[in-house]
Amino acid sequence: MGRHLVFVYGTLKAGEPNHDFLQPPHDAVFIGKGATVERFPLVIASRYNIPFVLDAVGQGNRIQGEVYEVDDNTLADLDELEKHPDYYKRRPTRIELFNPSATVLECGMYFLHGFHERLLTLPRYDNYSSAGAHGLPFQFRNDHVSDPLNPYSTIDDVKNDIE
User: Fold this and answer.
1) Which of 2, 9, 49, 95 has its CA 20 to 30 A from that of 133?
2) What CATH code is carried by the domain that includes residue 68?
3) Which residues are catalytic?
4) Does residue 129 lie within any of the structural domains?
5) Residue 152 pLDDT > 80, yes or no?
6) Residues in CB range of 26: below 8 A, 6 or more apart
7) Residue 32 lies in a domain
8) Range list of H helices, the chain
9) What is the pTM for the complete model shown?
10) Could you tell me the residue range of the domain that residue 43 belongs to?
11) What range(s) does the Gamma-glutamylcyclotransferase AIG2-like domain occupy (predicted)?
């Protein structure tokens, strides 16, 4: 089985709501904290307050997060969670570790592609926490009661119809 480096910046980080995906029985080894070498916009959007890194290199900040080494099965579970490649796309991204030698690793990172341009007008962050001062805690989808007369789609809310 292969091993893969992934960089997580949102709800998958330690202490965040989806971190269980990087805990046993999943096979994930924490490598260290770091930040993207390039700048990207990290925004919080949708009625569920989901953190998204927009695929718009050069705009925004160096995004802080965590690097994990995962096995094939854990990577497949992360891809399913992030709906790769339809919703997010995982692509190689250079991450500089916060260590004395500032090691740079190439890690898979999930980006929102084909997003509505209005997302670029939202406040941008460099380090996400669901409990942050922004006052926008992450909401699990099952925490909401759906209104069949007024259906809501997160995908429609944040993505363009045509890419």
Assistant:
1) 95
2) 3.10.490.10
3) 82
4) no
5) no
6) 70, 73, 74, 77
7) yes
8) 72-81, 154-158
9) 0.86
10) 3-118+148-159
11) 6-124
